[in-house]
Amino acid sequence: MLSDICGSSKLFEVYGDIQGWRIVSNALNLMARLTSKYEGNVVKTIGDQIMCVFKEPSKAVRTACEINRSLALGLPETQDPVKVKTSLHFGNIFIEQDDIFGDSINVAA
Q1: Which residues pair with 44 in a beta bridge?
Q2: Are 51 and 45 a contacting pair, CB within 8 Å?
Q3: Please, which residues bridge with residue 87 across strands?
Q4: Most buried of 62, 82, 94, 101, CB within 10 angstroms?
């Protein structure tokens, strides 16, 4: 699963660098907590995006739905909703050190 914060550049323009990063960071932390709640693992964050893996596709879908619902309510730093684009794909992957690779990742991306 890949979840990307939409319009994060605009957050930095509107709120400034420090507050913009707090919003992005808090959104990523929320995504990580929800991933863990549904027994997923965060592989890495890439800027304003999080990459996660799950053993069960249904748990990835539940996580994605809860991320969108939670961020639609806004964060303490802003009452504005934080929009997220999430993509999912199910298939084989291979793990190399602390990263994952495979066609499933490419399709989801």
Answers
A1: 51
A2: yes
A3: 2
A4: 82
Distance linking the first and last C-alpha atoms of the chain: 9
Running DSSP on this structure, what letter comes out for residue 78?
A: B
What is the DSSP secondary structure assignment for residue 83, as one 8-state letter?
-
Look at residues 57, 45, 64, 52 and name the one whose alpha carbon lies nearest to residue 91.
57
pTM of the entire structure?
0.86
Q: Is 82 helix (H, G, I), strand (E, B) or coil?
A: coil
Structure tokens at 28: 């990523």
Q: Which of 22, 91, 98, 103 is nearest to 57 (CA)?
A: 91
Tokens matching residue 57: 């596709």
Residue type, 71: L
